[in-house]
Design goal:
The protein has 564 residues and is an alpha+beta fold. It has twelve helices and 27 strands. The chain folds into four domains: 243 residues, no CATH class; 123 residues, Sandwich (Immunoglobulin-like); 121 residues, Sandwich (Immunoglobulin-like); 45 residues, no CATH class. The strands form eight sheets. It has a five-stranded mixed β-sheet, with no helix packed on it. A five-stranded mixed β-sheet has the order 20-27-26-22-24, with no helix packed on it. It is rod-shaped.
Length: 564
């Protein structure tokens, strides 16, 4: 048997090399079903030709040894998996003591005998399965039926239920036989007679509720290595309804709230926003709906960075209205800011369409998955550059000059246009002369990138003469998103000096004389024509109170000047 396995492996490698690395491990060669273009009886005849041409017929006897390859236990290569219960037993043939050969289409319901290799279905490995002898005996030649049944294998009235694990496999075995050997074998609804088998209605339901799994697909490919033909209904499960289900298919698939007339729906799954180097958000569920009474198979393909919990063409809906949840997400890095996206496309695979937007005429359904990766926020006292410190100096002010104010702002610089996180001010720590110099800066959240928040610094001069200073530490961070981090603290310093109140006008030092020391102050405050007072202390030299220290005020200064 080692030689057979090597031949199968070499055949697989050769096929993969011919059709390209994109071919899945158990897929048919490229173009294998190109001639299967019809529907109904035409399609069945085309599949018969494909299955028959080049077919190397195997014998009932050879199955005793080839089953070790066909039905190999993927977890134990020395064992095989039995039909109906998937029991793992030694693959060695011991004359039927451990396992024997189950005719899925009973031998008594076929022409010829098992020893006559010219009667192909009797020795065809697609129609044979290794089975526990006792279970094989219990089944006898019963037809399969009771489509709504679930659970393990058992007798149900006059029918045999193969169990959930194998009901779809059994259905496709019978569909194969009724197509490859269509001149002698027939599937019917209800209880069969003659060379018929059934119940067709049950087999159809099982085909959709138990799609081909990896074990069945591998088995199909292993048999192909020996027989040079394949079970089309494993490779292309969407053919079933057209051949055996009654033709035009009325299924329609869609995502979203309503079903479009042409069946082509679309939906955006927004994974939200994260900040640099955050974990990629988990996938989120999207509900795929089906309308119509007929079942169908559908494919799921991904584009870009998208992921989906369903994939390939082995996805199915049962009869009547149905819905299924598909988890869609993205596999991306978040090391740079930007928009991440991908698509999941769902295609109704049925080859017949009852009407526009149904079956083969059902438009594709596209799910777009999006994620925004944001740059970190950047706090600053300046809109033009990153300035993390600010000093506001109110200068020298006469006592009792009132509360002086100065506006300032905290900016969130836009590091990456359109893709920068908002800014939070998390806490403020203050110290120093906070009763004299203070600011109304406060906690805030979600300051958008490119915007600012305005605040006011104040200096209360109603205090004793002296020098005053207050400092603020402003702790900032990114908005509350995955990947958010603390930013660089902002440092605000407020400074001011209060001097003794002066005698108005001109007596800056309050000594009761307008003398040379006051002349120095007057000259420093002299602004010229129509220039407004800037320094608060200069108001003491504005004799005519016109908010301008000029020559008109000097005339008054000269009049009251007392000398040294």
């Amino acid at each position: 048997m080692a030689t057979c396995r090597v031949l199968v492996a070499l055949t697989t490698l050769l096929l993969v090399g011919m059709v390209g690395s994109a071919t899945a491990q158990y897929d048919p060669p490229s173009g294998y079903y190109d001639s299967a273009t019809g529907t109904g009886t035409t399609l069945k005849s085309q599949l018969n030709v494909i299955m028959t041409t080049g077919h190397v017929q195997q014998t009932y006897g050879s199955f005793r040894y080839q089953a070790a390859d066909y039905d190999e236990d993927p977890n134990n290569p020395s064992n095989i998996l039995l039909v109906y219960n998937r029991q793992s037993v030694s693959s060695g043939w011991d004359s039927g003591a451990t396992w024997n050969r189950e005719h899925v289409w009973p031998q008594s319901l076929q022409p010829g005998s098992a020893s006559n290799s010219s009667m192909g279905n009797l020795g065809d490995p697609f129609a044979l399965r290794p089975c526990n002898p006792s279970i094989n005996g219990s089944r006898g030649n019963m037809p399969f039926g009771n489509y709504d049944t679930t659970g393990s294998y058992r007798i149900l009235g006059s029918y045999w239920f193969p169990g959930d694990v194998d009901k779809g496999d059994i259905a496709r075995n019978l569909f194969y036989s009724a197509t490859r050997y269509q001149s002698t074998l027939t599937l019917v609804n209800g209880f069969p007679s003659g060379n018929q088998m059934g119940d067709l209605q049950s087999l159809l339901r099982w085909h959709y509720t138990d799609p081909p799994d990896e074990f069945e697909r591998r088995r199909n490919h292993e048999i192909y290595g020996y027989s040079n033909n394949r079970n089309a209904y494993i490779d292309r499960p969407e053919f079933i309804w057209s051949v055996f289900g009654g033709g035009d298919n009325d299924s329609k698939l869609y995502v979203g709230d309503t079903a479009p007339g042409d069946g082509a729906s679309s939906l955006t799954a927004d994974l939200g926003r994260v900040i640099l180097d955050a974990p990629t958000p988990d996938a989120q569920p999207v509900i795929l709906h089906k309308t119509g009474s007929d079942p169908t198979y559908y494919s799921v393909t991904t584009g870009g960075d998208a992921t989906a919990s369903a994939s390939g063409m082995y996805n199915a809906f049962d009869i009547n209205g149905q819905s299924q949840s598909i988890d869609v997400g993205l596999t991306v890095t978040t090391s740079t800011p930007g928009l991440r996206s991908g698509t999941v496309t769902i295609d109704n695979l049925d080859v017949d369409g009852a009407d526009s937007g149904q079956g083969s005429l059902d438009g594709d359904d596209v799910i777009t998955i999006e994620l925004q990766v944001l740059d970190h926020s950047e706090a600053s006292f300046s809109a033009a550059a990153d300035e993390d410190t600010l000093t506001i100096d109110f200068g020298v002010v006469g006592a009792g000059s009132g509360v002086l104010t100065e506006a300032f702002a905290v900016h969130n610089l836009e590091s990456t246009p359109g893709l920068s996180a908002a800014l939070d001010i998390d806490s403020i720590t203050e110290g120093g002369d906070t009763a004299v110099l203070f600011a109304d800066v406060s906690v805030l959240t979600d300051l958008a990138a490119g915007s600012s928040a305005g605040f006011t610094a104040s200096f209360d001069t109603g205090v004793a003469p002296g020098t005053y200073q207050t400092s603020y530490t402003i702790e900032v961070s990114d908005e509350d998103l995955p990947g958010g981090q603390p930013g660089t603290n902002l440092m605000l310093t407020l400074h001011g000096e209060v001097v003794a109140a002066a005698i108005f006008p001109f007596d800056d030092n309050g000594d009761g004389n307008v003398d040379l020391s006051d002349l120095v102050g007057f000259v420093n405050c002299l602004t010229g024509p129509a220039e407004a007072i800037v320094e608060p202390l200069c108001s003491n030299h504005d004799a005519d109170v016109d908010n301008d220290v000029d020559l008109h005020d000097f005339a008054e200064f000269a009049r009251v000047f007392t000398g040294g």
